[in-house]
Amino acid sequence: MLTQSTLSTAQTLNCMKLLSDSTRLIILKLVQKKQYCVCQFVEMFQTSQPSISQHLRKLKNAGMVKEERKEQWRFYSLNEDYEGIDLVNSVLNQIDENDEVLQAIKKREFPVSCN
Questions:
Q1: For 77-88, what is the mean pLDDT?
Q2: Both ends of the chain: CA-CA distance in Å?
Q3: d(CA 82, CA 62)
Q4: What are the residue boundaries of the structural domains of the chain, listed by start?
Q5: Is 78 in contact with 35 (CB distance < 8 Å)?
Q6: φ and ψ at 69, to 5 degrees?
């Protein structure tokens, strides 16, 4: 029998705060499926590298994403060991794969050429 993890009020609130930002929410939706490089996010979200790095730092500090370094590049994936992974997946699974915002960002995805 699978048991769902439970969180404290503070843990739940912190998780929901991080998920409440649209950029972080879409980043998490993307890394739910596969690993991405910072340079891909910069192009996909059409924003600056420092802005993307700030979002990723918050997600990493909370334990929601894992960071893997390959030379000077950093790749991110969903941390399946995060204490609130059930809550995160529950929220992410509510996002329709055909969502206009998600699809617009995915259309700007390019193969990794930074490694």
A1: 96
A2: 41
A3: 8
A4: 12-107
A5: no
A6: -100, 135
